[in-house]
């Protein structure tokens, strides 16, 4: 079992940095038992990483991909993040940044696991997406190496072997299934997106647009400018936080223009501060495609 100690030369909020890798309650590949654990597919095979904070950062890893995960620990925790170059142009963003000096963008260096989860979150409620992620992970993910009963997210090869009834039992509709299959068929090529820092490469896959590519870029290579345009909530929340009135994507991007090339970071500070517009309309009811 390889391990590593690392002392970050900057303030670090471990939970905030790694929390974006968790896909809802009951995520079979993520745990917060005695630190943060997650299982992942790596170029060397499946691996599990356990990270905890003491005076330093202590990490342990298991599996064929364990050493690869340890080697990427500094980048995962935001060592390559250009946060010091960020300038806050709005008081609410400046105050959020002041209160959260340990909030950084980490980089996993991998694409597939993040792309898989992001496709499941396309145009559905979080409840629907997280339920499907749990079902697919528990049924078709391999047991993760290490002492916790985690699951490694299913590989592209595994997903391509599933039958229609298996997809249906996990609650996945046809549109997202087609996109996921499209991505799985070229997954080995899409891994280059992390190295190239290219959202455009991901968007060449039918069914993957700017929202999905941004969600991957934020986590895969810590892209500080990848705004989740097209999200049901983000634009309304950002425009409300900065102007007092909910607006659309165009309005959000106009407000965020001074933050280029770190527009996503501005959004991240607003979200971390809990800046969400008041909700007066009924919430969307989650759909369960297993019933159809």
Structural overview:
There is one protein chain. The chain is globular and about 50 Å long. It is an alpha+beta fold and 292 residues long. A five-stranded antiparallel β-sheet has the order 1-5-4-3-2. Strands 6-7 form a two-stranded antiparallel ribbon. It is built from 16 helices and seven strands. Residues 120-273 form the HhH-GPD domain.
Kindly summarize this structure in a few lines:
By secondary structure, the protein is α+β, with helices and mostly antiparallel strands. It contains 16 helices and 7 strands.
Ordered list of secondary-structure elements with their pairings:
Elements: E1 3-6, H1 14-18, E2 30-31, E3 36-42, E4 45-53, E5 57-62, H2 66-71, H3 73-76, H4 91-99, H5 112-120, H6 126-140, E6 142-143, E7 151-152, H7 156-160, H8 164-169, H9 174-185, H10 187-190, H11 192-196, H12 199-202, H13 210-220, H14 234-243, H15 249-256, H16 263-272
Antiparallel strand pairs: 1-5, 2-3, 3-4, 4-5, 6-7
Helix pairs in contact: 4-16, 5-9, 5-13, 14-15
Organism: Lentzea miocenica
Catalytic activity: Hydrolysis of alkylated DNA, releasing 3-methyladenine, 3-methylguanine, 7-methylguanine and 7-methyladenine
Domain HhH-GPD: 120-273
């Amino acid at each position: 079992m390889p391990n590593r100690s690392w002392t970050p030369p900057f303030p670090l909020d471990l939970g905030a940095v790694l929390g974006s890798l968790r896909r809802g309650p009951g995520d079979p590949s993520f745990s917060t038992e005695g630190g943060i654990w997650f299982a992942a597919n790596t170029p060397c095979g499946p691996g599990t990483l356990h990270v905890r904070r003491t005076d330093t950062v202590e990490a342990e890893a298991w599996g064929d991909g364990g050493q690869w995960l340890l080697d990427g620990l500094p980048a995962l925790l935001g060592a390559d993040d250009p946060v010091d170059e960020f300038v806050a142009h709005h008081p609410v963003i400046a105050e959020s940044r002041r209160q959260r000096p340990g909030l950084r963008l980490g980089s996993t260096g991998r694409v597939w696991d993040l792309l898989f989860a992001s496709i499941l979150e396309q145009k559905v409620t979080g409840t629907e997406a997280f339920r499907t992620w749990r079902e697919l992970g528990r049924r078709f993910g391999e047991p993760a190496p290490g002492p916790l009963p985690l699951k490694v997210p299913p590989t592209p090869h595994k997903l391509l072997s599933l039958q229609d009834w298996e997809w249906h039992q996990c609650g996945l509709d046809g549109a997202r299934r087609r996109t996921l299959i499209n991505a799985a068929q070229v997954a080995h090529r899409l891994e280059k997106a992390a190295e190239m820092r290219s959202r455009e490469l991901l968007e060449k896959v039918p069914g993957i647009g700017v929202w999905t590519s941004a969600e991957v870029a934020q986590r895969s290579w810590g892209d500080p400018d990848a705004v989740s345009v097209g999200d049901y909530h983000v634009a309304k929340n950002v425009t409300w936080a900065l102007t007092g009135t909910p607006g659309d994507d165009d309005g959000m991007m106009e407000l965020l223009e001074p933050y280029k090339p770190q527009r996503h970071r501005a959004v991240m500070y607003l979200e971390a501060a809990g800046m969400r517009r008041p909700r007066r309309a009924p919430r969307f009811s989650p759909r369960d495609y297993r019933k159809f």
